[in-house]
């Protein structure tokens, strides 16, 4: 059984926030414990900060190779200026660097098929420059996933995805790649 925390829980929010925010929470708890608790209970109050220290360390570990916001904006701007052929070649090369075997499926709802460890993931990214994204491309991707028997699917878009499309993606188990994930994928090896 895989443990999954709610994405709106305090711990999930802190995991997505910069690591130093969790460290700030630790400092507040430690200082408040020292100021408000009797001396005999201060160690117990300080122990209440340990989960937040763990979150700070985990968030720092996850964010260690994350690109800087200016670099994210630069990479996404470059992607938006590309032709479909160049963009798809870049995405294909990025997944190949991660060890995927990349092919182009015959189903119109998917642009790339990724194979790794006997697991097939379909990728739809042809509408990466659309002004907005509705449900239709996600329905096509879900259809491709069912038809081709893929175990997962991912949708890439630089534009916001409508609320109804987000609900559809969540219901169908389609991963909507975030802009930060896309920038991390597009980043050349060893760059930050």
TrEMBL record:
**Record's keyword terms, sorted:** Membrane, Transmembrane, Transmembrane helix
The highest taxon in the source lineage is: Bacteria
Query: What are the TM regions of this chain, as residue ranges?
Result: 12-34, 40-61
Q: Name one Pfam family in it.
A: Mrr_cat
Q: Which InterPro entries match?
A: Restrct_endonuc-II-like (IPR011335), Restrct_endonuc_IV_Mrr (IPR007560)
Q: What is this protein called?
A: Putative membrane protein
Its source organism is Albidiferax ferrireducens (strain ATCC BAA-621 / DSM 15236 / T118)
A GO molecular function term, named singly, is: endonuclease activity
- Segments forming domain Restriction endonuclease type IV Mrr: 80-186
Q: Name one GO biological process term.
A: DNA restriction-modification system
């Amino acid at each position: 059984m895989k443990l999954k925390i709610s994405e709106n829980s305090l711990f999930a929010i802190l995991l997505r926030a910069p690591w130093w925010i969790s460290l700030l929470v630790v400092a507040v708890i430690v200082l408040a414990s020292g100021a408000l608790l009797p001396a005999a209970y201060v160690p117990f109050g300080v122990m209440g900060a340990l989960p937040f220290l763990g979150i700070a360390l985990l968030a720092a570990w996850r964010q260690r190779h994350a690109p800087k916001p200016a670099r994210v904006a630069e990479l996404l701007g470059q992607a938006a200026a590309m032709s479909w052929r160049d963009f798809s070649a870049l995405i294909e090369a990025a997944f190949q660097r991660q060890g995927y075997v990349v092919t182009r499926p015959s189903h119109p709802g998917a642009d790339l098929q990724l194979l790794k460890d006997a697991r097939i993931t379909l990728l739809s990214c042809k509408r990466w420059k659309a002004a907005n994204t509705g449900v239709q491309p996600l329905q096509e991707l879900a259809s491709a996933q069912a038809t081709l028997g893929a175990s997962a699917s991912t949708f890439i878009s630089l534009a916001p995805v409508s609320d109804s499309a987000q609900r559809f993606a969540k219901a169908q188990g389609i991963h909507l790649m975030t802009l930060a994930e896309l920038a991390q994928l597009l980043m050349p090896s060893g760059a930050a």
